[in-house]
Amino acid sequence: MLSISHRHGGVRCLATLVLLALSACGTDPRAPEPLPKDVAVTNASEVRALAERGDVESQLVLASMYFDGQGVPRDEAEARKWFALAAERHDPRGQYALGVMARDPVESARWHALAAEQGHASAQRALAIARLAGNGVAEDASEAARLLRLAADRGDAESQFLLGMLCAEGRGVERDEALAVRWWTTASDRGPAQAQRNLANAYAKGRGVSADPARAVALNRLAADQGLAEAQADLGLAYIQGRGVDADPAEGARWLALAAERGVAIAQGLPATTTCLFFQGNAPVTTTSFFGDGARCAGSGIVRLGTKTASAGVAAYGYPADIPILTRGLIPVGGGWRYYQAWYRNAAVFCTNSTFNMSNAAALLWSP
After folding, report:
1. Alpha carbon distance 260, 38 (integer Å)
2. How far are the Cα atoms of 84, 214, 220, 275 from residue 223, in angstroms, in the given order?
3. pLDDT tens, 36-95?
4. Cβ atoms of 71 and 80 closer than 8 Å
């Protein structure tokens, strides 16, 4: 259960900190794709009989049944055994699944490389990601881009999205924002929320494409409807600021409230392009502690989350390029209360001659 409370922290508090609900829980990304997708399992014993006779499709289906716990008790060891039998017959789906299930990054990369050589798009993408991170294999952005291009050409939407990222950053390929937009457009047609959000940002900022705030809102809505917290936050801000859509603070607040899972802290009402430091404390400051033109409300064990530059008076921390608040704030598995505030530059003279002020503070209970 999460709860959030707010209290004003400044003598002249102009900026408001919106801290979206967070969870200390994570998800396990290790999950082979269903193999194959078009087979309906009705009788586990019949599938096992075919698998034991060496039928590769049945071995893959049986492995997936054990991995997912469908029709049989969930058993990763049995799943790995049947995937391995299919992989021994040089089936790329079995090889890819073993790569996903491998706990050793070197072993994972080895299986993914075998499947990638046979044109398995997901394996090509997985190996590319390993190449970008140097995880179990030598770091090589150019090779990663080559692998992603192979998978993207086979219609893999996630690879199209990632290839667009490399084009936008100029990593492993020549920097080309227009080409990044084309890849994100291709990917977004197939539904990946992150591709839709990146494309929305391109339209919002006119990067690689003519600026179109209304188009940015439409794309962010597609991603937000899929539950992408960052898109929900962007859409909420668009409604609050009237960017690409008629201003509607209530609708904006609704979208901000939905951006709950990954965690995004947003400071509003800042000077247009000021710098803003988001920080976390372990306890509230219980006595008045004036600081600049405001007051400190979050204290004890201060963690600097990150410094951001405001755009149109709004700054945010917690987007994909940022270290998650969960990680940066060293939130324990058991959760607990943490307190958040934003410190920003403001040269205007208020109560003092200081050139900085504080937002209000937000108290947040992380749940295990």
Report:
1. 34
2. 37, 15, 5, 28
3. 444 445 578 889 999 999 999 999 999 999 998 888 999 999 999 999 999 999 999 999
4. no
Interatomic CA distance for residues 4 and 10, integer angstroms: 19
Q: Which of 66-80, 96-110, 350-364 has the lowest mean pLDDT?
A: 350-364
Task: Please say whether the beta carbons of 35 and 48 come within 8 A.
Answer: no
- Residue environment code for 240-263, b if the CB has 16+ CB neighbours within 10 A, otherwise e: bbebbbeeeeebbeebbebbbbbb
Q: Yes or no: is domain 1-23+261-368 CATH 1.10.1200?
A: no
Annotated domain spans of the chain: 1-23+261-368
Distance CA 108, CA 115 (A): 11
- DSSP annotation of 314: B
Cis peptide before 36 (omega within 30 of 0): yes
**Residue 167 burial (C-beta neighbours within 10 Å; 0-12, 13-18, 19+):** buried
What is the spatial distance between Cα 2 and Cα 362, in angstroms, rounded to a whole number?
13
Q: What is the mean pLDDT of residues 170-185?
A: 95
Query: Which single residue is written with the structure tokens 């084309």?
Result: 182
